[in-house]
């Protein structure tokens, strides 16, 4: 048997808002008391504090702090409109998501060393397999498109891209 | 006469014509594919414009914008999936028409009303931009400071969803814009010693990351859904039907122009206001929502009436009205141009050449739209699992091309993750981007005002123009609070009804 009165408990109306508010509150504290003093250099002589490079970041920091508190209160007290249920998604297989992450890592880690075309082919193949695409001829697109798009960038638009793997 | 010949020389080139045509085609194609938006297409096309002439580059992006606005309605009508948020209103009558076998009629009505609205909007742009720029020539730093304050507050107060989250997004955008070397003292701000960050955060990786990558992440995180095939069938739109819709189209276009000229309001609001206005006035009001062609025409007129008008604050004041014009502002900057009143003095021929291109884009939209209706099923049938890997490739190539550095690819992916978190937390990305763009202007005008006024704060209330913008800023904040309270009241009413 419990003695606590359930009516007296604060019922969170929108957990998403509370979490967002708490994260931003923490960020604002880090910004105001660590990042601004340590990573923004202030000149020794200032005619007006509003001219300081730290002034606007500080103002923004305090405003984020204030609005994050309001957001936490909003989450605690105000029910989110039903449209916000869009935030809920039906999650797919983790394998599919993991393979997308692999494709992103391929682009970031290998783009300069392996070249745009090679990375494009590899990442596109990984993403096709991730879904998976079951039409076999679609896989030829994974070879065709990176070559055509890289050609468009480099030869037609004169925008340079790393073309070949480093050992060639 | 001299200017006229300069304009002709600037505008009449194969590159410009090709840029508009290609832009409109890309816009219609991308807009008509659910999941891909005109914003995404404009962001992805930006790196392609580096080597182009400024006019051709801007016209390509404008073409994509206009094509995308129309393209969004195609899927709204055929498969009840709006290609863009602004097309959500079109499906109210468009989809029932498609179900009744009048898909082609609905598509034609959407096309003709889009083109007419676009044309009216362009005319408004040509007339009002120069006039507004002339007034803006009297602005000094304090006036611009308050104008930017007004733009920031109106964008937040009119943004959909929570006002607090809109404010938060704008503040984060302003904070991010401050990364790099300080303009006045040259001291480093939040660079963490990274050379890549000293020249501030690159605009294009941020843009691509924020608007293209979250869609890709969400697609691979969500459960796969079956691909829906679309078909445009039935008879076309008769002239008498178009004539019947004409009043609603013109009224919708004017609503679009007014709403588009105010920064931050956007096409979605214009489409819904135009639709409800048409329903209120129409003799067929009972048929609205059940497949009324006038409903489709009114929604599309409101939606497309915004396109030209959003360029008014951009060209005359240098203030982007929405996300796409913010990207177009980025394109101006990439090509060494700064939109604003001075541009009307220093680059008048370029402005007129742009106006000619923008007018031509309406004609091209008509031609491309007709072809798109005919061959649409081919475009719509590209499944997302095939499309998104290719879009990701464009994103990476585009981000890398900015500085030839993988740091930008990483930056783009980081912003992609941030954009995804924003989507999940229902934080709007548009105020973030506008904050990022207006942040440096805000600080620059604040500091210049202080320097001009010798640190005397009374410079910020120095004359009627500053008073006017202060009043507008206060008004927009009051509007934001009113909307906040109204939303709260509605939510409470709904909750009490449910309980």
From TrEMBL, chain A:
<dbReference type="Pfam" id="PF07331">
    <property type="entry name" value="TctB"/>
</dbReference>
<dbReference type="InterPro" id="IPR009936">
    <property type="entry name" value="DUF1468"/>
</dbReference>
<feature type="transmembrane region" description="Helical">
    <location>
        <begin position="15"/>
        <end position="35"/>
    </location>
</feature>
<keyword id="KW-0812">Transmembrane</keyword>
<keyword id="KW-0472">Membrane</keyword>
<keyword id="KW-1133">Transmembrane helix</keyword>
<protein>
    <submittedName>
        <fullName>Tripartite tricarboxylate transporter TctB family protein</fullName>
    </submittedName>
</protein>
<feature type="domain" description="DUF1468">
    <location>
        <begin position="19"/>
        <end position="162"/>
    </location>
</feature>
<feature type="transmembrane region" description="Helical">
    <location>
        <begin position="136"/>
        <end position="154"/>
    </location>
</feature>
<feature type="transmembrane region" description="Helical">
    <location>
        <begin position="55"/>
        <end position="77"/>
    </location>
</feature>
<feature type="transmembrane region" description="Helical">
    <location>
        <begin position="97"/>
        <end position="130"/>
    </location>
</feature>
UniProtKB/TrEMBL annotation, chain B:
<feature type="transmembrane region" description="Helical">
    <location>
        <begin position="167"/>
        <end position="186"/>
    </location>
</feature>
<dbReference type="InterPro" id="IPR002823">
    <property type="entry name" value="DUF112_TM"/>
</dbReference>
<feature type="transmembrane region" description="Helical">
    <location>
        <begin position="192"/>
        <end position="213"/>
    </location>
</feature>
<keyword id="KW-1133">Transmembrane helix</keyword>
<feature type="transmembrane region" description="Helical">
    <location>
        <begin position="317"/>
        <end position="338"/>
    </location>
</feature>
<feature type="transmembrane region" description="Helical">
    <location>
        <begin position="409"/>
        <end position="439"/>
    </location>
</feature>
<feature type="transmembrane region" description="Helical">
    <location>
        <begin position="385"/>
        <end position="402"/>
    </location>
</feature>
<feature type="transmembrane region" description="Helical">
    <location>
        <begin position="109"/>
        <end position="132"/>
    </location>
</feature>
<feature type="transmembrane region" description="Helical">
    <location>
        <begin position="144"/>
        <end position="160"/>
    </location>
</feature>
<feature type="transmembrane region" description="Helical">
    <location>
        <begin position="459"/>
        <end position="482"/>
    </location>
</feature>
<keyword id="KW-0472">Membrane</keyword>
<feature type="transmembrane region" description="Helical">
    <location>
        <begin position="42"/>
        <end position="65"/>
    </location>
</feature>
<dbReference type="Pfam" id="PF01970">
    <property type="entry name" value="TctA"/>
</dbReference>
<feature type="transmembrane region" description="Helical">
    <location>
        <begin position="253"/>
        <end position="275"/>
    </location>
</feature>
<feature type="transmembrane region" description="Helical">
    <location>
        <begin position="350"/>
        <end position="373"/>
    </location>
</feature>
<protein>
    <submittedName>
        <fullName>Tripartite tricarboxylate transporter permease</fullName>
    </submittedName>
</protein>
<keyword id="KW-0812">Transmembrane</keyword>
<feature type="domain" description="DUF112">
    <location>
        <begin position="18"/>
        <end position="433"/>
    </location>
</feature>
<feature type="transmembrane region" description="Helical">
    <location>
        <begin position="7"/>
        <end position="30"/>
    </location>
</feature>
């Amino acid at each position: 048997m419990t003695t606590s009165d359930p009516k007296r408990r604060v019922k969170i109306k929108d957990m998403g808002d509370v979490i967002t508010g708490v994260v931003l509150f923490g960020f604002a504290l880090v910004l105001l008391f660590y990042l601004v003093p340590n990573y923004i250099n202030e000149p020794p002589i200032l005619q007006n504090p509003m001219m300081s490079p730290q002034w606007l970041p500080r103002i923004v920091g305090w405003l984020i702090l204030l609005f994050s508190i309001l957001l936490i209160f909003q989450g605690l007290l105000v029910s989110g409109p039903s449209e916000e249920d869009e935030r809920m998604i039906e999650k797919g297989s983790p394998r599919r998501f993991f393979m997308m992450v692999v494709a992103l890592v391929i682009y970031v880690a290998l783009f300069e060393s392996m070249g745009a075309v090679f990375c494009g082919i590899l990442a596109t193949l990984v993403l096709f397999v991730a879904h998976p695409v079951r039409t076999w001829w679609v896989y030829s697109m994974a070879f065709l498109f990176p070559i055509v798009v890289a050609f468009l960038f480099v030869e037609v638009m004169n925008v340079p891209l790393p073309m070949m793997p480093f050992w060639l | 006469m001299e200017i006229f010949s300069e304009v002709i020389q600037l505008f009449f080139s194969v590159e410009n014509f090709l840029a508009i045509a290609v832009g409109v085609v890309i816009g219609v194609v991308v807009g008509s594919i659910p999941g891909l938006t005109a914003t995404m297409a404009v962001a992805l096309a930006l790196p392609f414009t580096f080597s182009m002439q400024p006019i051709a580059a801007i016209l390509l992006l404008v073409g994509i914008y206009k094509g995308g606005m129309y393209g969004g309605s195609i899927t709204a009508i055929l498969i009840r999936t709006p290609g863009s948020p602004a097309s959500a209103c079109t499906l109210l009558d468009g989809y029932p028409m498609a179900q009744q076998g009048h898909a082609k009629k609905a598509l034609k009505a959407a096309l003709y009303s889009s083109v007419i609205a676009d044309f009216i909007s362009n005319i408004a742009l040509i007339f009002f931009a120069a006039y507004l720029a002339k007034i803006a020539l009297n602005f000094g730093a304090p006036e611009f400071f308050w104008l930017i304050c007004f733009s920031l507050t109106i964008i937040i107060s009119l943004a959909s969803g929570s006002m607090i989250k809109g404010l938060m997004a704008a503040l984060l955008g302003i904070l991010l814009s401050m990364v790099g070397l300080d303009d006045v003292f040259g001291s480093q701000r939040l660079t963490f010693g990274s050379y890549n960050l000293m020249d501030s955060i690159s605009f294009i990786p941020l843009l691509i990351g924020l608007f293209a990558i979250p869609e890709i992440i969400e697609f691979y995180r969500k459960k796969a859904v079956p691909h829906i095939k679309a078909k445009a069938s039935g008879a076309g739109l008769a002239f008498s039907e178009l004539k019947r819709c004409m009043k609603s189209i013109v009224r919708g276009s004017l609503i679009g122009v007014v709403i588009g000229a105010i920064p931050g309001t956007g096409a979605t609001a214009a489409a819904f206001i135009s639709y409800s206005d048409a329903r209120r006035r129409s003799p067929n009001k009972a048929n609205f929502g059940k497949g009324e062609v006038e409903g489709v025409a009114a929604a599309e007129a409101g939606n497309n009436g915004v396109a030209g008008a959003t360029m008014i604050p951009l060209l005359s004041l240098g203030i982007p009205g929405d996300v796409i014009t913010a990207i177009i502002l980025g394109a101006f900057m990439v090509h060494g141009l700064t939109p604003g009143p001075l541009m009307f003095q220093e680059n008048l021929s370029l402005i007129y050449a742009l106006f000619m291109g923008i007018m031509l884009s309406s004609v091209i939209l008509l031609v491309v739209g007709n072809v798109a209706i005919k061959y649409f099923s081919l475009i719509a049938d590209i499944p997302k699992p095939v499309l998104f890997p290719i879009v990701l490739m464009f994103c990476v190539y585009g981000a890398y091309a900015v500085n030839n550095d993988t740091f930008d690819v990483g930056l783009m992916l980081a912003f992609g993750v941030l954009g995804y978190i924003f989507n999940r937390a229902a934080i709007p990305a548009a105020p973030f981007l506008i904050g990022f763009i207006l942040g440096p202007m805000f600080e620059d005008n604040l500091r210049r005002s202080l320097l001009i006024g010798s640190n005397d704060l009374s410079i910020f209330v120095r004359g009627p123009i500053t008073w006017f913008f202060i009043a507008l800023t206060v008004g927009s904040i009051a509007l934001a609070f009113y909307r906040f309270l109204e939303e709260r009241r509605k939510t409470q009413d709904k909750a009490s009804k449910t309980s």
